[in-house]
Amino acid sequence: MPRAKIPPKKFPVMEYRRRLATDEELENWFGHGDSNQAVLCGSPSGGLVVLDFDNALNFRSFLDVAPELEGATVIVRTARGGHIWVQTPEPVHTFQIEEFGLDVKGEGGYVVAPPSVHPSGKVYEFANDVTQIATIPDFILWLTEKLAILGISWRQPQPGGGNPPGWLGELLNSTIAVGARRPTVARLAGAMREKGIEEKAAVALITPWADSAFVEPLPAAEVEKHVRGVYQRYGVNGDKAGEEPRSRFHPIPVSLLLETAPTSITWLVQDYIPIGGFVCITGRSKVGKTTLAYHLAAAVRKGLPFLGRDTMKGKVCIFALEEREEDVMLRCRELGIDEDVFIHVGPLRSEAALEEIESWCRQERPALVIVDTLFRFWAVRDAGDPMEVADALGPYLALARETSCAFLLVSQLRKTEGQEGTDILGSTELLAQMDVGLALRRRSEGQVNERVLEAFSRYSNTPCELVIRLTENGYEALGDRAELRRKELRQQVLGALDSHPRGLTELADRAGLALVRTRTGLDSLEREGAALRSGRGVKGDPHLWRLTK
Q1: Diameter of the chain measured on Cα atoms
Q2: Where are the domains of the chain?
Q3: What number of other Cβ atoms are within 10 A of residue 326's Cβ?
Q4: Helix/strand/coil (H, E, C) string of 10-33?
Q5: What's the whole-model pTM score?
Q6: 59 vs 100: CA distance, rounded Å
Q7: Could you point out which of 71, 211, 273, 374 has its C-alpha 20 to 30 Å from the C-alpha of 423?
Q8: Distance CA 482, CA 488 (A)
Q9: What CATH architecture applies to the domain 485-547?
């Protein structure tokens, strides 16, 4: 597992549930020193079951109600939560308790183990010095009792739940023996039910596949009967038919939050793009949004500074939805973009491609996805409707949070000027959904290759504005406009001075500035000791300035 949470494509995970790896295989996997390692759960590891919490608060809460585990079994701290390792005498299949952010990894599952590195850069580490694994005789009963203390009620996993990665493709390409036909139908029906697929659609999908995959086909009526049985028993999306949907309300004490919450933000681009962040960059046509985005991609793929800020190295995916393929490739060649950057060129609609994009992001684990442009991507009829905007962005915001993959959405500004981000095209809900909203504008008083990057951020350390300049070596950060004006004024007035004492009017003419601005610049140079003033500033003895050296 090369610095990832999932094995490479076509890696035969199932094979190693039946046999040990050879010395040669181990050398190939770990000899180069940059691979993660995982532990198979279930029977290959003596009945190992791992409670995988994706939330540090729930992880800590569970240990509070199961204090006997802390000194008795292996516990691991992960990037977002933690793992608790136990053993069970009876097989436990992998399943989820979604409302508590808990994956129970048993038969068919695996967990990433220390000292592996999470895609965010955080290291998996043991939370204690215990080397033994505690045995839980009646695991399901024990887990139910512990969760009940926390106010979490749940049902045992249903058919289709807790399947290992890649199980579906492997199953659909298999020949199903006589004794496995009915369980296989139930497994597929359960998986479709959890995806929200309606009963009739599930029957229509499973029946023709079963007819060709089963050694001895089942009658279509019997296939339909088994599918209907799963849906009648469990309903759709995990709620039993006739039951009220389960509540996920679970308030947590602030004191616990303060104990377990991170003390700082982990940044992909320092101050601007957090890991798993949702960011948009807006601007008028031909202001340079795409150019800036591609320079960002070139920096992230190598972990190089960008806009004077550190970046975290990672894969990048670009959705190039407007430009021609020739233009995209030319831009990549100019910036040296090749390895670890993936590009989709051509039309792509967010709603239709969501499942494929989710699958790809979970497989490749990019650090950054750039969508250029948002209005070519999302399936929104009325961009001014806040509810429609929220619905369109919601799945991708969730994907960013779940995979730690940051999204940068390239969008437009209105023709009319606005303040505090109100000139971003579309509903203000677009900015509300963002962790950081960026607006790229031309700098009216600057050079043709200078822009102003304004930021509207939930983070206090994001600069409100930054003047940037595009050079042959990339973007150069110059500071905010006020700071830059001071620097430019200093240089203009300093250029007008020499060793000969001169009056204010003469210096203003030499600098090409108004008298007031010239005097402001002179006062600043005096304070820093770069200019000397003589004369009393009265008639017959005017103030004169010259260079100190």
Answers
A1: 115
A2: 13-149, 167-234, 267-479, 485-547
A3: 9
A4: CCCHHHHHCCCCCHHHHHHHHCCC
A5: 0.56
A6: 9
A7: 273
A8: 10
A9: Orthogonal Bundle (1.10)
